[in-house]
Protein backbone atom coordinates (compact mmCIF):
# COMPACT_ATOMS: atom_id res chain seq x y z
CA UNK A 1 0.00 0.00 0.00
CA UNK A 2 2.84 2.39 0.87
CA UNK A 3 6.32 1.87 -0.42
CA UNK A 4 9.29 3.89 0.79
CA UNK A 5 12.27 3.74 -1.54
CA UNK A 6 15.62 4.89 -0.31
CA UNK A 7 14.26 7.72 1.80
CA UNK A 8 16.79 10.27 2.96
CA UNK A 9 16.07 13.28 5.12
CA UNK A 10 18.63 15.85 6.12
CA UNK A 11 18.02 18.85 8.36
CA UNK A 12 20.17 21.89 8.56
CA UNK A 13 20.88 23.04 12.06
CA UNK A 14 23.05 26.11 11.66
CA UNK A 15 26.19 24.99 9.87
CA UNK A 16 25.67 21.40 10.89
CA UNK A 17 23.74 18.94 8.72
CA UNK A 18 21.65 16.35 10.55
CA UNK A 19 20.97 13.17 8.62
CA UNK A 20 17.75 12.06 10.26
CA UNK A 21 17.04 9.32 7.69
CA UNK A 22 19.78 7.75 5.61
CA UNK A 23 18.16 5.52 3.00
CA UNK A 24 15.07 3.88 4.43
CA UNK A 25 13.36 1.16 2.39
CA UNK A 26 10.05 -0.03 3.76
CA UNK A 27 6.85 -1.57 2.44
CA UNK A 28 3.65 -1.19 4.42
CA UNK A 29 0.85 -3.61 3.68
CA UNK A 30 -2.80 -2.68 3.89
CA UNK A 31 -4.41 -3.60 7.18
CA UNK A 32 -1.27 -4.41 9.11
CA UNK A 33 -0.44 -3.22 12.60
CA UNK A 34 3.16 -2.11 12.63
CA UNK A 35 5.22 -0.93 15.56
CA UNK A 36 8.23 1.31 14.98
CA UNK A 37 10.80 1.24 17.74
CA UNK A 38 14.24 2.69 18.25
CA UNK A 39 16.19 5.02 20.48
CA UNK A 40 15.40 8.69 20.80
CA UNK A 41 16.70 10.71 17.87
CA UNK A 42 16.80 7.66 15.59
CA UNK A 43 14.46 9.24 13.04
CA UNK A 44 11.13 7.57 13.89
CA UNK A 45 9.08 10.75 14.00
CA UNK A 46 10.71 11.99 10.82
CA UNK A 47 9.75 8.76 9.09
CA UNK A 48 6.17 8.99 10.35
CA UNK A 49 5.81 12.58 9.15
CA UNK A 50 7.04 11.58 5.69
CA UNK A 51 4.61 8.66 5.64
CA UNK A 52 1.83 11.04 6.64
CA UNK A 53 2.62 13.53 3.85
CA UNK A 54 3.34 16.17 6.47
CA UNK A 55 7.01 16.34 5.53
CA UNK A 56 8.95 15.75 2.34
CA UNK A 57 12.00 13.50 2.01
CA UNK A 58 15.23 15.09 0.82
CA UNK A 59 15.73 12.10 -1.49
CA UNK A 60 13.80 8.98 -2.41
CA UNK A 61 10.26 8.06 -3.37
CA UNK A 62 7.10 7.63 -1.34
CA UNK A 63 4.66 5.53 -3.33
CA UNK A 64 1.17 5.88 -1.97
CA UNK A 65 -0.98 3.28 -3.76
CA UNK A 66 1.50 3.62 -6.61
CA UNK A 67 1.47 7.44 -6.67
CA UNK A 68 4.71 9.16 -5.75
CA UNK A 69 4.05 11.86 -3.19
CA UNK A 70 7.71 12.90 -2.93
CA UNK A 71 8.02 16.34 -4.46
CA UNK A 72 4.28 17.00 -4.55
CA UNK A 73 3.27 20.57 -3.71
CA UNK A 74 1.75 21.21 -0.28
CA UNK A 75 -1.62 21.93 -1.89
CA UNK A 76 -1.82 18.28 -3.02
CA UNK A 77 -0.25 16.83 0.11
CA UNK A 78 -2.90 18.47 2.28
CA UNK A 79 -5.59 16.74 0.23
CA UNK A 80 -3.92 13.37 0.82
CA UNK A 81 -3.72 14.11 4.54
CA UNK A 82 -7.43 14.91 4.60
CA UNK A 83 -8.50 11.87 2.62
CA UNK A 84 -6.12 9.14 3.63
CA UNK A 85 -4.21 9.94 6.81
CA UNK A 86 -5.11 9.99 10.48
CA UNK A 87 -2.60 11.38 12.98
CA UNK A 88 -2.35 10.70 16.72
CA UNK A 89 0.29 12.43 18.86
CA UNK A 90 1.89 11.77 22.19
CA UNK A 91 0.66 15.13 23.58
CA UNK A 92 -2.90 14.66 22.23
CA UNK A 93 -3.16 18.30 21.08
CA UNK A 94 -6.84 18.75 21.80
CA UNK A 95 -8.27 22.25 21.53
CA UNK A 96 -9.16 23.38 25.07
CA UNK A 97 -12.09 25.60 24.08
CA UNK A 98 -13.90 22.90 22.13
CA UNK A 99 -15.96 20.01 23.51
CA UNK A 100 -14.95 16.39 22.94
CA UNK A 101 -17.55 16.30 20.18
CA UNK A 102 -16.11 19.35 18.42
CA UNK A 103 -12.55 18.14 18.86
CA UNK A 104 -13.46 14.87 17.16
CA UNK A 105 -15.25 16.77 14.40
CA UNK A 106 -12.42 19.29 13.85
CA UNK A 107 -10.81 17.61 10.77
CA UNK A 108 -14.20 17.68 9.02
CA UNK A 109 -13.98 21.45 9.09
CA UNK A 110 -10.82 21.27 6.99
CA UNK A 111 -12.01 18.53 4.66
CA UNK A 112 -15.17 20.64 4.18
CA UNK A 113 -17.48 17.77 5.10
CA UNK A 114 -20.56 18.33 7.23
CA UNK A 115 -20.20 17.00 10.78
CA UNK A 116 -22.73 14.17 11.05
CA UNK A 117 -23.74 13.74 14.68
CA UNK A 118 -24.37 10.04 14.17
CA UNK A 119 -20.89 9.36 12.90
CA UNK A 120 -19.18 11.26 15.69
CA UNK A 121 -21.31 9.46 18.27
CA UNK A 122 -20.29 6.14 16.76
CA UNK A 123 -16.62 7.06 16.90
CA UNK A 124 -16.98 8.21 20.49
CA UNK A 125 -18.66 4.95 21.35
CA UNK A 126 -15.90 3.00 19.65
CA UNK A 127 -13.30 4.65 21.91
CA UNK A 128 -15.60 4.48 24.94
CA UNK A 129 -16.36 8.21 25.26
CA UNK A 130 -20.03 8.36 24.34
CA UNK A 131 -20.84 9.78 27.79
CA UNK A 132 -18.13 12.47 27.48
CA UNK A 133 -19.12 14.19 24.23
CA UNK A 134 -20.09 17.48 25.84
CA UNK A 135 -17.14 17.64 28.20
CA UNK A 136 -14.18 19.96 27.79
CA UNK A 137 -10.76 18.35 27.32
CA UNK A 138 -9.70 19.70 30.73
CA UNK A 139 -12.32 17.46 32.33
CA UNK A 140 -10.86 14.30 30.79
CA UNK A 141 -8.16 11.93 32.03
CA UNK A 142 -5.04 11.46 29.91
CA UNK A 143 -6.35 8.17 28.57
CA UNK A 144 -9.64 9.80 27.62
CA UNK A 145 -7.83 12.64 25.89
CA UNK A 146 -5.84 10.21 23.79
CA UNK A 147 -8.98 8.27 22.92
CA UNK A 148 -10.58 11.54 21.82
CA UNK A 149 -7.52 12.15 19.64
CA UNK A 150 -7.85 8.69 18.10
CA UNK A 151 -11.50 9.34 17.28
CA UNK A 152 -10.43 12.65 15.73
CA UNK A 153 -7.82 10.79 13.65
CA UNK A 154 -10.54 8.50 12.32
CA UNK A 155 -13.23 11.02 11.51
CA UNK A 156 -12.16 11.44 7.88
CA UNK A 157 -12.20 7.64 7.30
CA UNK A 158 -8.44 7.46 6.64
CA UNK A 159 -6.67 4.57 4.95
CA UNK A 160 -3.88 4.69 7.47
CA UNK A 161 -3.57 5.76 11.11
CA UNK A 162 -0.20 7.10 12.22
CA UNK A 163 0.42 7.26 15.97
CA UNK A 164 3.58 8.82 17.37
CA UNK A 165 4.13 7.37 20.83
CA UNK A 166 0.40 7.38 21.59
CA UNK A 167 0.96 5.82 25.01
CA UNK A 168 4.04 7.86 25.86
CA UNK A 169 2.18 9.98 28.42
CA UNK A 170 -0.07 7.25 29.78
CA UNK A 171 0.07 4.67 32.54
CA UNK A 172 -0.04 0.91 31.84
CA UNK A 173 -3.79 0.57 32.21
CA UNK A 174 -4.54 3.42 29.82
CA UNK A 175 -1.81 2.27 27.44
CA UNK A 176 -3.53 -1.11 27.29
CA UNK A 177 -6.82 0.55 26.41
CA UNK A 178 -5.18 2.53 23.61
CA UNK A 179 -3.43 -0.56 22.30
CA UNK A 180 -6.68 -2.49 22.37
CA UNK A 181 -8.35 0.17 20.26
CA UNK A 182 -5.50 0.21 17.71
CA UNK A 183 -5.54 -3.56 17.58
CA UNK A 184 -9.28 -3.62 16.95
CA UNK A 185 -8.98 -0.99 14.20
CA UNK A 186 -6.29 -3.00 12.51
CA UNK A 187 -8.37 -6.16 12.78
CA UNK A 188 -11.16 -4.25 11.06
CA UNK A 189 -8.79 -3.55 8.17
CA UNK A 190 -7.26 -0.16 9.01
CA UNK A 191 -3.53 0.11 8.35
CA UNK A 192 -2.06 1.22 11.69
CA UNK A 193 1.47 2.38 12.42
CA UNK A 194 2.53 3.10 15.95
CA UNK A 195 5.83 4.45 17.23
CA UNK A 196 6.42 3.17 20.73
CA UNK A 197 9.02 2.95 23.45
CA UNK A 198 7.00 0.25 25.17
CA UNK A 199 8.65 -3.11 24.31
CA UNK A 200 5.64 -5.07 25.52
CA UNK A 201 3.29 -3.34 23.12
CA UNK A 202 5.83 -3.55 20.31
CA UNK A 203 6.17 -7.27 20.81
CA UNK A 204 2.44 -7.74 20.32
CA UNK A 205 2.30 -5.93 16.96
CA UNK A 206 2.17 -7.94 13.78
CA UNK A 207 5.42 -6.46 12.67
CA UNK A 208 8.08 -4.47 14.46
CA UNK A 209 10.45 -2.21 12.59
CA UNK A 210 13.57 -1.09 14.41
CA UNK A 211 15.23 2.18 13.47
CA UNK A 212 18.68 3.30 14.55
CA UNK A 213 20.66 6.28 13.28
CA UNK A 214 18.28 6.87 10.41
CA UNK A 215 18.38 3.34 9.09
CA UNK A 216 16.13 0.30 9.49
CA UNK A 217 17.90 -2.47 11.34
CA UNK A 218 17.59 -5.78 9.58
CA UNK B 1 -21.18 22.39 15.09
CA UNK B 2 -17.66 23.51 14.47
CA UNK B 3 -17.08 26.33 12.03
CA UNK B 4 -14.23 28.70 11.39
CA UNK B 5 -16.08 31.43 13.25
CA UNK B 6 -16.82 29.25 16.24
CA UNK B 7 -13.24 28.07 16.39
CA UNK B 8 -12.01 31.66 16.27
CA UNK B 9 -14.52 32.77 18.90
CA UNK B 10 -13.52 29.93 21.22
CA UNK B 11 -9.90 30.88 20.83
CA UNK B 12 -10.66 34.47 21.76
CA UNK B 13 -12.53 33.29 24.85
CA UNK B 14 -9.51 31.35 26.02
CA UNK B 15 -7.83 34.53 27.19
CA UNK B 16 -10.81 36.45 28.41
CA UNK B 17 -9.00 39.30 30.12
CA UNK B 18 -6.55 39.88 27.32
CA UNK B 19 -9.29 39.78 24.69
CA UNK B 20 -11.55 42.02 26.74
CA UNK B 21 -8.86 44.66 27.17
CA UNK B 22 -7.96 44.56 23.49
CA UNK B 23 -11.62 44.78 22.56
CA UNK B 24 -12.16 47.74 24.89
CA UNK B 25 -9.28 49.57 23.22
CA UNK B 26 -11.09 49.17 19.93
CA UNK B 27 -14.42 50.11 21.51
CA UNK B 28 -13.03 53.33 22.95
CA UNK B 29 -11.48 54.50 19.71
CA UNK B 30 -14.46 53.54 17.55
CA UNK B 31 -16.81 55.15 20.07
CA UNK B 32 -14.96 58.43 19.77
CA UNK B 33 -14.76 58.12 15.99
CA UNK B 34 -18.51 57.63 15.85
CA UNK B 35 -19.10 60.56 18.18
CA UNK B 36 -16.88 62.88 16.14
CA UNK B 37 -18.51 61.89 12.86
CA UNK B 38 -22.05 62.14 14.22
CA UNK B 39 -21.22 65.33 16.02
CA UNK B 40 -20.26 67.18 12.90
CA UNK B 41 -23.49 66.18 11.21
CA UNK B 42 -25.60 67.23 14.18
CA UNK B 43 -23.64 70.43 14.54
CA UNK B 44 -24.02 71.72 10.99
CA UNK B 45 -27.67 70.71 10.84
CA UNK B 46 -28.35 72.33 14.21
CA UNK B 47 -26.59 75.47 13.10
CA UNK B 48 -28.52 75.68 9.84
CA UNK B 49 -31.82 75.22 11.69
CA UNK B 50 -30.86 77.87 14.20
CA UNK B 51 -29.90 80.46 11.62
CA UNK B 52 -32.98 79.61 9.59
CA UNK B 53 -35.14 80.19 12.66
CA UNK B 54 -33.96 83.77 13.07
CA UNK B 55 -35.86 84.44 9.89
CA UNK B 56 -33.17 86.95 8.97
CA UNK B 57 -31.20 87.04 5.76
CA UNK B 58 -28.34 89.27 6.73
CA UNK B 59 -26.93 91.42 9.49
CA UNK B 60 -25.70 94.96 9.20
CA UNK B 61 -22.86 95.86 11.56
CA UNK B 62 -20.44 98.75 11.89
CA UNK B 63 -17.62 98.20 9.44
CA UNK B 64 -14.76 96.19 10.90
CA UNK B 65 -17.03 94.13 13.10
CA UNK B 66 -17.85 91.30 10.69
CA UNK B 67 -16.13 88.71 12.84
CA UNK B 68 -18.43 89.34 15.76
CA UNK B 69 -21.57 88.58 13.80
CA UNK B 70 -21.52 84.85 14.38
CA UNK B 71 -21.08 85.37 18.09
CA UNK B 72 -23.74 88.06 18.08
CA UNK B 73 -26.35 85.90 16.40
CA UNK B 74 -25.59 82.75 18.36
CA UNK B 75 -24.95 84.00 21.86
CA UNK B 76 -24.54 87.74 22.00
CA UNK B 77 -21.31 89.69 22.02
CA UNK B 78 -20.47 93.21 22.95
CA UNK B 79 -19.38 95.22 19.95
CA UNK B 80 -17.78 98.46 21.01
CA UNK B 81 -19.16 100.36 18.01
CA UNK B 82 -22.71 101.42 17.30
CA UNK B 83 -24.44 101.98 14.04
CA UNK B 84 -25.46 105.54 13.43
CA UNK B 85 -29.00 106.49 14.10
CA UNK B 86 -29.43 107.21 10.44
CA UNK B 87 -28.62 103.71 9.35
CA UNK B 88 -31.89 102.30 10.60
CA UNK B 89 -33.89 104.92 8.69
CA UNK B 90 -31.80 104.25 5.62
CA UNK B 91 -32.40 100.55 5.84
CA UNK B 92 -36.11 100.91 6.38
CA UNK B 93 -36.29 103.17 3.38
CA UNK B 94 -34.58 100.71 1.08
CA UNK B 95 -36.79 98.89 -1.40
CA UNK B 96 -37.27 95.16 -1.06
CA UNK B 97 -36.79 95.02 2.70
CA UNK B 98 -39.47 93.16 4.60
CA UNK B 99 -38.20 93.58 8.13
CA UNK B 100 -35.31 95.28 9.87
CA UNK B 101 -34.79 94.40 13.49
CA UNK B 102 -32.17 96.22 15.53
CA UNK B 103 -30.05 94.41 18.09
CA UNK B 104 -28.37 96.45 20.77
CA UNK B 105 -25.71 94.84 22.90
CA UNK B 106 -23.89 96.96 25.43
CA UNK B 107 -22.21 97.06 28.80
CA UNK B 108 -23.92 98.99 31.50
CA UNK B 109 -21.75 99.67 34.55
CA UNK B 110 -23.62 99.71 37.83
CA UNK B 111 -21.52 101.47 40.43
CA UNK B 112 -23.92 100.75 43.29
CA UNK B 113 -23.81 97.01 42.82
CA UNK B 114 -20.18 97.09 41.75
CA UNK B 115 -20.76 95.15 38.58
CA UNK B 116 -21.34 95.56 34.89
CA UNK B 117 -24.61 94.45 33.35
CA UNK B 118 -24.48 93.10 29.84
CA UNK B 119 -27.52 94.42 28.06
CA UNK B 120 -29.00 92.61 25.10
CA UNK B 121 -31.80 94.53 23.45
CA UNK B 122 -33.81 92.83 20.74
CA UNK B 123 -37.36 92.34 19.56
CA UNK B 124 -38.69 89.66 21.86
CA UNK B 125 -40.29 87.59 19.10
CA UNK B 126 -36.94 87.53 17.27
CA UNK B 127 -35.28 86.39 20.50
CA UNK B 128 -37.76 83.56 20.80
CA UNK B 129 -36.92 82.49 17.26
CA UNK B 130 -33.19 82.59 17.89
CA UNK B 131 -33.32 80.73 21.18
CA UNK B 132 -35.89 77.97 20.90
CA UNK B 133 -33.97 75.79 23.34
CA UNK B 134 -34.29 78.14 26.29
CA UNK B 135 -36.19 76.99 29.28
CA UNK B 136 -37.70 80.10 30.75
CA UNK B 137 -39.06 80.29 34.27
CA UNK B 138 -41.86 82.86 34.00
CA UNK B 139 -42.46 84.39 30.59
CA UNK B 140 -40.63 86.24 27.89
CA UNK B 141 -41.15 90.04 28.30
CA UNK B 142 -44.39 91.26 26.74
CA UNK B 143 -44.17 94.89 27.88
CA UNK B 144 -41.50 97.49 27.54
CA UNK B 145 -40.78 97.63 31.27
CA UNK B 146 -40.23 93.88 31.51
CA UNK B 147 -36.89 92.15 31.47
CA UNK B 148 -35.58 88.62 30.99
CA UNK B 149 -32.55 87.62 33.01
CA UNK B 150 -29.78 85.19 32.23
CA UNK B 151 -29.30 82.49 34.85
CA UNK B 152 -26.16 83.96 36.40
CA UNK B 153 -27.58 87.45 36.60
CA UNK B 154 -30.64 86.16 38.44
CA UNK B 155 -28.47 84.10 40.76
CA UNK B 156 -26.14 86.96 41.50
CA UNK B 157 -28.93 89.29 42.58
CA UNK B 158 -31.14 86.49 43.89
CA UNK B 159 -34.07 87.53 41.72
CA UNK B 160 -37.33 85.71 40.95
CA UNK B 161 -39.95 86.46 38.27
CA UNK B 162 -42.06 89.34 39.49
CA UNK B 163 -39.16 90.99 41.35
CA UNK B 164 -37.94 94.46 40.50
CA UNK B 165 -34.71 94.67 38.59
CA UNK B 166 -33.00 97.78 39.89
CA UNK B 167 -31.27 99.77 37.23
CA UNK B 168 -28.86 102.62 37.70
CA UNK B 169 -30.58 104.55 34.92
CA UNK B 170 -32.82 106.73 37.06
CA UNK B 171 -36.55 106.45 36.66
CA UNK B 172 -36.54 103.16 34.84
CA UNK B 173 -38.23 100.49 36.86
CA UNK B 174 -38.08 97.03 35.36
CA UNK B 175 -39.97 93.90 36.37
CA UNK B 176 -38.41 90.49 35.95
CA UNK B 177 -40.74 88.62 33.56
CA UNK B 178 -38.68 85.49 33.33
CA UNK B 179 -35.37 83.83 34.01
CA UNK B 180 -33.51 81.73 31.49
CA UNK B 181 -32.51 78.26 32.66
CA UNK B 182 -28.86 77.40 33.15
CA UNK B 183 -27.12 76.93 29.80
CA UNK B 184 -23.46 76.92 30.77
CA UNK B 185 -22.82 79.40 27.96
CA UNK B 186 -22.50 83.14 27.68
CA UNK B 187 -26.31 83.35 27.55
CA UNK B 188 -26.31 83.15 31.33
CA UNK B 189 -24.61 86.52 31.71
CA UNK B 190 -27.03 88.76 29.79
CA UNK B 191 -29.96 90.93 30.67
CA UNK B 192 -32.44 90.67 27.81
CA UNK B 193 -34.60 93.70 27.14
CA UNK B 194 -37.10 94.70 24.51
CA UNK B 195 -35.08 96.73 21.99
CA UNK B 196 -36.84 100.00 22.64
CA UNK B 197 -36.33 99.70 26.38
CA UNK B 198 -32.66 98.98 25.84
CA UNK B 199 -32.27 101.94 23.51
CA UNK B 200 -33.93 104.25 26.00
CA UNK B 201 -32.01 102.82 28.92
CA UNK B 202 -28.70 103.29 27.21
CA UNK B 203 -29.72 106.67 25.84
CA UNK B 204 -29.27 105.72 22.22
CA UNK B 205 -32.74 105.86 20.71
CA UNK B 206 -32.79 104.42 17.18
CA UNK B 207 -29.25 103.10 17.43
CA UNK B 208 -28.12 99.51 17.36
CA UNK B 209 -25.11 97.28 17.47
CA UNK B 210 -26.46 95.42 14.52
CA UNK B 211 -29.52 95.33 12.36
CA UNK B 212 -30.96 92.02 11.30
CA UNK B 213 -32.67 92.21 7.96
CA UNK B 214 -35.21 90.06 6.22
CA UNK B 215 -35.84 90.76 2.54
CA UNK B 216 -38.98 90.18 0.49
CA UNK B 217 -37.24 88.10 -2.13
CA UNK B 218 -34.20 86.08 -1.01
CA UNK B 219 -32.87 85.91 -4.57
CA UNK B 220 -32.32 89.66 -4.42
CA UNK B 221 -30.12 89.59 -1.30
CA UNK B 222 -27.01 90.25 -3.39
CA UNK B 223 -28.45 93.33 -5.07
CA UNK B 224 -29.86 94.76 -1.85
CA UNK B 225 -26.67 94.31 0.18
CA UNK B 226 -24.68 95.87 -2.62
CA UNK B 227 -26.90 98.90 -2.82
CA UNK B 228 -26.85 99.31 0.98
CA UNK B 229 -23.08 99.11 1.30
CA UNK B 230 -22.59 101.61 -1.48
CA UNK B 231 -25.09 104.14 -0.14
CA UNK B 232 -24.66 103.87 3.64
CA UNK B 233 -21.19 104.71 4.91
CA UNK B 234 -19.53 102.90 7.78
CA UNK B 235 -21.41 99.62 7.58
CA UNK B 236 -20.56 96.10 6.69
CA UNK B 237 -23.01 93.35 5.76
CA UNK B 238 -22.72 89.73 6.71
CA UNK B 239 -25.21 87.27 5.28
CA UNK B 240 -26.44 84.27 7.24
CA UNK B 241 -24.78 82.06 4.64
CA UNK B 242 -21.46 83.67 5.54
CA UNK B 243 -22.12 83.19 9.25
CA UNK B 244 -22.98 79.59 8.55
CA UNK B 245 -19.78 79.18 6.59
CA UNK B 246 -17.47 80.72 9.10
CA UNK B 247 -18.95 78.77 11.99
CA UNK B 248 -18.95 75.52 10.12
CA UNK B 249 -15.38 76.16 9.01
CA UNK B 250 -14.47 76.46 12.62
CA UNK B 251 -16.33 73.25 13.41
CA UNK B 252 -14.67 71.55 10.46
CA UNK B 253 -11.23 72.54 11.71
CA UNK B 254 -12.07 71.20 15.17
CA UNK B 255 -13.36 68.04 13.58
CA UNK B 256 -10.28 67.56 11.45
CA UNK B 257 -8.14 67.81 14.54
CA UNK B 258 -10.30 65.38 16.52
CA UNK B 259 -10.42 62.99 13.58
CA UNK B 260 -6.65 62.99 13.35
CA UNK B 261 -6.44 62.15 17.05
CA UNK B 262 -9.11 59.47 16.74
CA UNK B 263 -7.33 57.88 13.81
CA UNK B 264 -4.14 57.68 15.83
CA UNK B 265 -6.10 56.09 18.68
CA UNK B 266 -7.56 53.57 16.25
CA UNK B 267 -4.12 52.82 14.89
CA UNK B 268 -2.84 52.22 18.41
CA UNK B 269 -5.71 49.91 19.25
CA UNK B 270 -5.18 48.06 15.97
CA UNK B 271 -1.57 47.50 16.98
CA UNK B 272 -2.93 46.22 20.30
CA UNK B 273 -5.12 43.76 18.43
CA UNK B 274 -2.24 42.67 16.27
CA UNK B 275 -0.06 42.11 19.30
CA UNK B 276 -2.73 40.22 21.19
CA UNK B 277 -3.45 37.90 18.27
CA UNK B 278 0.25 37.43 17.56
CA UNK B 279 0.75 36.30 21.16
CA UNK B 280 -2.14 33.91 20.81
CA UNK B 281 -0.62 32.50 17.62
CA UNK B 282 2.75 31.88 19.25
CA UNK B 283 1.11 30.23 22.22
CA UNK B 284 -0.78 27.89 19.94
CA UNK B 285 2.08 26.89 17.64
CA UNK B 286 1.71 23.20 18.47
CA UNK B 287 -2.04 23.31 18.08
CA UNK B 288 -1.66 24.95 14.69
CA UNK B 289 0.81 22.21 13.73
CA UNK B 290 -1.75 19.61 14.78
CA UNK B 291 -4.43 21.28 12.67
CA UNK B 292 -2.13 21.20 9.67
CA UNK B 293 -1.51 17.49 10.28
CA UNK B 294 -5.21 16.68 10.47
CA UNK B 295 -5.92 18.43 7.18
CA UNK B 296 -5.81 22.20 7.57
CA UNK B 297 -4.20 24.04 4.67
CA UNK B 298 -2.17 27.19 5.14
CA UNK B 299 -5.19 29.13 3.95
CA UNK B 300 -7.40 27.44 6.57
CA UNK B 301 -5.03 28.55 9.33
CA UNK B 302 -4.86 32.03 7.82
CA UNK B 303 -8.64 32.26 7.89
CA UNK B 304 -8.98 31.12 11.49
CA UNK B 305 -6.51 33.72 12.73
CA UNK B 306 -7.96 36.46 10.55
CA UNK B 307 -11.40 35.63 11.93
CA UNK B 308 -10.11 36.10 15.44
CA UNK B 309 -8.94 39.61 14.66
CA UNK B 310 -12.07 40.62 12.82
CA UNK B 311 -14.29 39.27 15.60
CA UNK B 312 -12.36 41.37 18.12
CA UNK B 313 -12.58 44.42 15.87
CA UNK B 314 -16.27 43.99 15.07
CA UNK B 315 -17.37 43.33 18.64
CA UNK B 316 -15.19 46.22 19.80
CA UNK B 317 -16.68 48.46 17.12
CA UNK B 318 -20.29 47.65 17.98
CA UNK B 319 -19.65 48.01 21.72
CA UNK B 320 -17.96 51.34 21.02
CA UNK B 321 -20.94 52.67 19.09
CA UNK B 322 -23.39 51.50 21.75
CA UNK B 323 -21.32 53.16 24.48
CA UNK B 324 -20.95 56.30 22.40
CA UNK B 325 -24.69 56.50 21.75
CA UNK B 326 -25.48 55.94 25.41
CA UNK B 327 -22.91 58.51 26.46
CA UNK B 328 -23.85 61.05 23.77
CA UNK B 329 -25.28 63.54 26.25
CA UNK B 330 -22.08 63.46 28.30
CA UNK B 331 -19.93 64.05 25.24
CA UNK B 332 -22.23 66.89 24.20
CA UNK B 333 -21.97 68.56 27.59
CA UNK B 334 -18.20 68.38 27.26
CA UNK B 335 -18.20 69.82 23.75
CA UNK B 336 -20.52 72.64 24.78
CA UNK B 337 -18.11 73.59 27.52
CA UNK B 338 -15.11 73.86 25.17
CA UNK B 339 -16.53 75.01 21.82
CA UNK B 340 -17.79 78.49 21.04
CA UNK B 341 -20.99 78.83 18.95
CA UNK B 342 -22.63 75.55 19.78
CA UNK B 343 -26.16 75.38 18.43
CA UNK B 344 -28.90 74.15 20.74
CA UNK B 345 -30.58 70.80 20.23
CA UNK B 346 -28.99 67.36 19.98
CA UNK B 347 -25.50 67.60 18.57
CA UNK B 348 -24.95 63.86 18.39
CA UNK B 349 -27.68 62.03 16.60
CA UNK B 350 -27.58 58.29 16.06
CA UNK B 351 -27.25 57.88 12.34
CA UNK B 352 -27.32 54.24 11.17
CA UNK B 353 -25.23 55.09 8.11
CA UNK B 354 -22.49 56.67 10.22
CA UNK B 355 -22.70 53.71 12.64
CA UNK B 356 -22.42 51.19 9.83
CA UNK B 357 -19.62 53.18 8.25
CA UNK B 358 -17.67 53.25 11.51
CA UNK B 359 -18.11 49.50 11.99
CA UNK B 360 -17.13 48.86 8.38
CA UNK B 361 -14.06 51.01 8.88
CA UNK B 362 -12.92 49.15 11.98
CA UNK B 363 -13.66 45.89 10.20
CA UNK B 364 -11.21 46.85 7.47
CA UNK B 365 -8.68 48.01 10.07
CA UNK B 366 -9.18 44.69 11.88
CA UNK B 367 -8.56 42.82 8.66
CA UNK B 368 -5.35 44.74 8.08
CA UNK B 369 -4.19 44.19 11.67
CA UNK B 370 -4.97 40.50 11.34
CA UNK B 371 -3.02 39.90 8.17
CA UNK B 372 0.42 39.81 9.75
CA UNK B 373 -0.43 37.36 12.56
CA UNK B 374 -2.44 35.26 10.11
CA UNK B 375 0.46 35.07 7.66
CA UNK B 376 2.78 34.19 10.56
CA UNK B 377 0.42 31.44 11.65
CA UNK B 378 0.02 30.07 8.15
CA UNK B 379 3.79 29.85 7.79
CA UNK B 380 4.27 27.75 10.91
CA UNK B 381 6.04 24.56 9.88
CA UNK B 382 3.89 21.72 11.22
CA UNK B 383 6.84 19.35 11.51
CA UNK B 384 8.71 21.75 13.75
CA UNK B 385 5.58 22.65 15.67
CA UNK B 386 4.76 19.08 16.67
CA UNK B 387 8.15 17.56 17.41
CA UNK B 388 7.05 14.16 18.60
N1 LIG C 1 13.20 20.25 12.38
C1 LIG C 1 14.39 19.71 12.66
N2 LIG C 1 15.50 20.45 12.49
C2 LIG C 1 16.72 19.91 12.74
N3 LIG C 1 16.89 18.69 13.17
C3 LIG C 1 15.83 17.90 13.37
C4 LIG C 1 14.51 18.38 13.12
N4 LIG C 1 13.64 17.40 13.39
C5 LIG C 1 14.38 16.34 13.79
N5 LIG C 1 15.67 16.66 13.79
C6 LIG C 1 16.78 15.75 14.12
O1 LIG C 1 16.62 14.60 13.36
C7 LIG C 1 16.94 13.46 14.15
C8 LIG C 1 15.75 12.53 14.16
O2 LIG C 1 14.71 13.11 14.87
P1 LIG C 1 13.32 12.40 15.15
O3 LIG C 1 12.80 11.88 13.86
O4 LIG C 1 12.46 13.33 15.88
O5 LIG C 1 13.76 11.19 16.07
P2 LIG C 1 12.87 10.23 17.00
O6 LIG C 1 11.47 10.52 16.73
O7 LIG C 1 13.29 8.85 16.61
O8 LIG C 1 13.27 10.52 18.40
C9 LIG C 1 17.31 13.97 15.51
O9 LIG C 1 18.72 14.07 15.58
C10 LIG C 1 16.68 15.32 15.56
O10 LIG C 1 17.45 16.14 16.41
MG1 LIG D 1 9.94 11.10 18.02
Number of helical segments with 4 or more residues of chain A:
7
Model regions low in confidence, pLDDT < 50 over at least 5 residues of chain A: none
Distance separating the two termini of chain A: 21 Å
| Coarse shape of chain B | elongated
Oligomer: heterodimer
Order of helices and strands of chain A: EEEHEEHEHHHEHEHEE
Using a beta-carbon cutoff below 8 angstroms, give the protein chain pair with the largest interface and the number of residues from each chain: A-B, 38 and 28 residues
| Mean pLDDT figure of chain B | 84
Radius of gyration of chain A: 17 Å
- The CATH homologous superfamily of chain A is called P-loop containing nucleotide triphosphate hydrolases
Helix proportion of chain A:
25-40%
Q: Classify the fold: give the CATH topology of chain A.
A: Rossmann fold
The amount of beta strand of chain B, in percent, is: 15-25%
The fraction of residues in strands of chain A falls at 25-35%
The helix-and-strand class of chain B reads alpha+beta
Largest sheet of chain B: 10 strands, mixed
Bound ions, cofactors and other small molecules, one mention each: adenosine-5'-diphosphate, magnesium ion
Share of helix among residues of chain B?
A: 55-70%
CATH class of chain A: Alpha Beta
Number of strands of chain A: 10
Estimated radius of gyration of chain B: 30 Å
GO molecular function, one term (chain A): transmembrane transporter activity
Domain ABC transporter (chain A): 2-216
Keywords (chain A): ATP-binding, Nucleotide-binding, Transport
GO cellular component, one term (chain A): plasma membrane
